[in-house]
Amino acid sequence: ANSIFGALDTTIFETMSRMAAEAGAINLGQGFPEGLEPEEVVEAAIAALRSGPHQYPPMAGLPALRQAVAENARRFLGLDVDWEKEVLVTSGATEALADAFFGLLEPGDEVIVFEPAYDSYQPIIRRAGAVPVPVRIAPPDWGVPFERLEAAITPKTRAFILNTPWNPIGRILDDEELRFLADLMLKHDLVAICDEVYEHLVFDGRQHRTLFALPEVRDRVVRIGSAGKTFSVTGWKVGYITACEALLKPIMRAHQFVTFTTPPALQAAVAFGLNLPDAYFDGLRAELQGRRDLLVGGLRAAGFDVENVEATYFAIAATGEAKSDDVAFCRAMTFEAGVTAVPLSAFYGKGDMRSHIRFCFAKREETLRAAVERIVAWR
Ligand code: GLN
């Protein structure tokens, strides 16, 4: 399977879910929620399946969903988006990412990838013939390293991929970081691919910030969202891209040959969901925030050093000096404690950042309590 583009390995999330199943462990590894699916959105999908249509919807997505994506961005982020020219529906953010890489990159282009990075970025950038250039961020502050970032830029740099709110570290980029990135985009003529699938999952009254909101760079930004996260239905695989027409056109050309379309009933249901009143979005945040507090509090009580979590489904914890191999630690915790997490090294191309593990807290309270009890008993 090795080629000049590099091997496509089994994703860490699948690997850890299989390990959890084999051990009968509580799975806090793979990032998916438990018991949060909004009933009215599920009902909307059922109604749409009953009524049809069942044939190929328009290649760019149902107008109702594209309008809802634009309207939701206006309501929550104050963005001004032309739904007809600037919104594309995809089969999940995963497809959106692939379309963006295939549509915008030429062989030999370099793409800055901030690490820890979601595991699909680098393999697909390579398959597009481009070169991922990792810029790593690290403890204790997990901040964007301005100098190292600028040093990584060459005349071949075409884009960077940015994930805010950030899986796995649970951070939101702040205004100073976004300002720096925007200036860099202008100075070096770069495009930003912004994976914002956790845009609605922000806590403690914080605000998600997007580069798309900065007028000087708006037309250089590809903004990606996912219904999987916003409506706690990760199996649905409905995503969306917002970008100016000039960027969206080549992305759409890739999309027409990757999936072409996305199931229409699910698109209709997601359109309905995006138009739900603020109370839905506030409720989701509040519920997840409570779950975060439960898991983070429990892990800290068990002696883990856990980073603060501003957003996302995830909390990261240091494994501690005695057990400083994250992969071995996750395996041991799965088989000995009966709780599965994900090693953070999976988010680093070289696999050498071995000091932390990631827990998903988007689970039912009883699941989280049981996991904490097992970990306390084990440590
Ligand atoms: N995004 C999820 C995570 O980070 C999992 C996605 C997947 O399993 N491919 O855990």
TrEMBL record:
Keyword Transferase: yes
Key words of the record: Aminotransferase, Pyridoxal phosphate, Transferase
Annotated Gene3D superfamilies: Aspartate Aminotransferase, domain 1, Type I PLP-dependent aspartate aminotransferase-like (Major domain)
Name by which UniProt lists this protein: Aspartate/methionine/tyrosine aminotransferase
Entry cofactors: pyridoxal 5'-phosphate
An MF annotation (GO) of this entry: pyridoxal phosphate binding
Organism for this UniProt entry: Afifella marina DSM 2698
One Pfam family recorded for the sequence: Aminotran_1_2
Domain Aminotransferase class I/classII large: 26-375
One Gene Ontology cellular component annotation held by this UniProt entry: cytoplasm
Similarity section: Belongs to the class-I pyridoxal-phosphate-dependent aminotransferase family.
CDD domains: AAT_like
Coiled coil spans: none
